[in-house]
Specification:
CATH superfamily of the largest domain: Aldehyde Dehydrogenase, Chain A, domain 1
CATH architecture of the largest domain: 3-Layer(aba) Sandwich
CATH topology of the largest domain: Aldehyde Dehydrogenase, Chain A, domain 1
Number of helices: 15
Strand content: 15-25%
Radius of gyration: 22 Å
Bound molecules: nicotinamide-adenine-dinucleotide
Number of strands: 21
Helix content: 40-55%
Shape: globular
Length: 471
């Protein structure tokens, strides 16, 4: 049993004023595995005060000094890779395929930020104006549970790259992963107050960070509903806001696609991280002409997927993070059937042979129309909706007929055609045939999927203000 009693303020682990406790579970066994003592609004204010004290010195640092800090953080996180792997597997139940990406990713983002700083021009001349890119002021980060260590590291790395200080409020559901990461980050020896982290509820600690005038910048990853609340609250003190929100990604399977390659990609995108991914491609758009062939291949491929705990390296799909998330996914599987979609694979209840743990059956619906709730709302579980289209124009119209616009996918064999389709999609990212993403490429959403971008120069500039010194 892991009991987490402290938060991190002004370079030290300290006991919070808040005394409420939150229970932590292993989602693969439903057993209680820990407890975290939560901070409150007063703790958030103490963390903001520490970040404000540290800001003047941080804003004067040179790019070279910040690169050195980023490299120290990268090394510290990389040195704890085994512990992070273990914490994520136990508290979160992520399949090994996701762990193999996300643990190295957490240290890699510091390296990416260091490269961005090295290649970035902080002062440039525009006519008679010397334009200086200055750090925006003290930042706050609020993160979700579904890729906890990666989000904390990305937001911390960007703050440091920009020369500012930060207060982080991670999801209360990921406290063991957070604590393991914090112990690593502490070893990097950052100046006091540059990094502060307060465990707590969103409506308590998150709300204080959103409204406190001492915070100049909020960077949030989480649901669209919470993002809206934060945006409204932050408006009062004109905070700069980056929002990374939900998605309902379309995957357009062009009629020239090679199905031997495309079908595994389709399922990997749809069921990524057990379907608990904002970038999951959860709407598959298939040409009517190839619908029968595609659905038959999907049925076979889904039946071969292994559902099981993280400890089994052959598991493709792990449990949902909580009982509540399990219920939510069940309710959408029920709703899809009530709305007239047909079950091709999966359905309600637990997978055969798994009588405990918040496991769901990977589910594929056919005969889905884009007005059904399963096609419009983010489910956040392994549920794929298959929709048919008659021609390229209709495929694009269906793909864009959504409030979301985070990540879309185009699968085919004609590169020029795929790029043409990508050019017409309303999304922050379009991935062609599952090409790997460049680490400096911007990430973020159109429409209700968010505001602003992370990574590379676009992510850095979201933490900077341009100042023109004229004459
Ligand atoms: P959530 O919105 O419920 O919570 C996210 C964070 O916000 C948590 O730390 C929570 O405590 C906090 N919070 C809740 N209410 C708040 C309030 N009133 N004020 C301030 N903070 C508050 O999201 P979740 O369930 O933890 O995560 C899943 C969601 O995150 C999904 O919608 C998913 O698409 C989204 N997500 C987006 C991205 C992206 O990069 N676009 C990445 C991962 C997850």
């Amino acid at each position: 049993m892991k009991i987490i009693e402290q938060i991190y303020v002004d370079g030290a682990f300290v006991t919070p004023e808040g005394s409420e406790r939150f229970e932590l579970f292993n989602p693969a066994t439903e057993e209680k595995i820990g407890e975290v003592r939560l901070g409150d609004a007063e703790d958030a204010r103490a963390a903001i005060a520490a970040a404000k004290r540290a800001f003047p010195a941080m804003r004067r640092t040179t790019p070279a000094e910040r690169i050195a800090m980023l490299q120290a953080l990268r090394d510290a996180v990389a040195a704890h890779a085994d512990a992070l792997h273990e914490a994520m597997a136990t508290e979160y139940g992520a399949p090994q395929s996701f762990l193999a990406f996300s643990v190295p990713h957490a240290s890699h983002v510091f390296e990416v930020a260091a490269k961005t700083v090295a290649g970035y021009t902080f002062t440039r001349q525009i006519g008679n104006a010397a334009v200086v890119m200055e750090p925006v002021g003290v930042a706050a980060a609020i993160t979700p549970w579904n890729s906890n260590i990666g989000f904390i590291c990305t937001k911390l790395a960007t703050a440091i790259a920009a020369g500012t200080t930060i207060v982080i409020k991670p999801s209360e559901m990921s406290a063991i992963q957070t604590q393991t990461l914090l112990e690593a980050l502490h070893e990097a020896g950052l100046p006091r107050g540059v990094l502060n982290l307060v465990n707590g509820y969103g409506h308590v600690v998150g709300a204080e960070l959103s409204q406190n005038p001492g915070i100049a910048k909020i960077t949030f990853t989480g649901s669209t509903t919470t993002g809206k609340t934060i945006l409204r609250t932050a408006a009062e003190s004109f905070k700069r806001v980056t929002l990374e929100l939900g998605g309902k990604g379309p995957q357009i399977l062009l009629d020239d696609a090679d199905l031997d390659h495309a079908i595994p990609h389709v399922l990997a995108s749809a069921f990524r991280n057990s379907g608990q991914a904002c970038i999951a491609g959860t709407r598959l758009l298939v040409s009517e002409r190839r619908l029968a062939e595609v659905t038959s291949r999907l049925a076979t491929a889904v039946s071969a997927l292994k559902i099981g705990p993280s400890s089994d390296p052959t598991s493709d799909i792990g449990p949902m993070v909580s009982a509540r998330q399990w219920q939510r996914v069940q309710s959408y599987i029920r709703l899809g059937q009530e709305d007239g979609a047909k079950l091709l694979a999966g359905g309600e209840g637990r997978p055969q042979g798994l009588d405990r743990g918040w496991f769901v059956r990977p589910t594929v619906f056919t005969d889905v129309t884009n007005d059904m709730r399963i096609a419009r709302e983010e489910i956040f579980g392994p549920v794929l909706s298959v929709l048919s289209y008659r021609g390229e124009d209709e495929a694009i119209a269906i793909a864009n007929d959504t409030d979301y616009g985070l990540q879309s996918y185009v699968l085919g064999t004609d590169a020029e055609r795929m790029r043409r389709v990508a050019g017409r999609l309303e999304a922050g990212r379009v991935v062609l045939n599952e090409a790997p993403a460049d680490a400096q490429a911007p990430f973020g959403g159109f429409k209700h999927s968010g505001i602003g971008r992370e990574f590379g120069p676009f992510g850095l500039e979201a933490f900077l203000e341009p100042k023109a010194i004229i004459g």
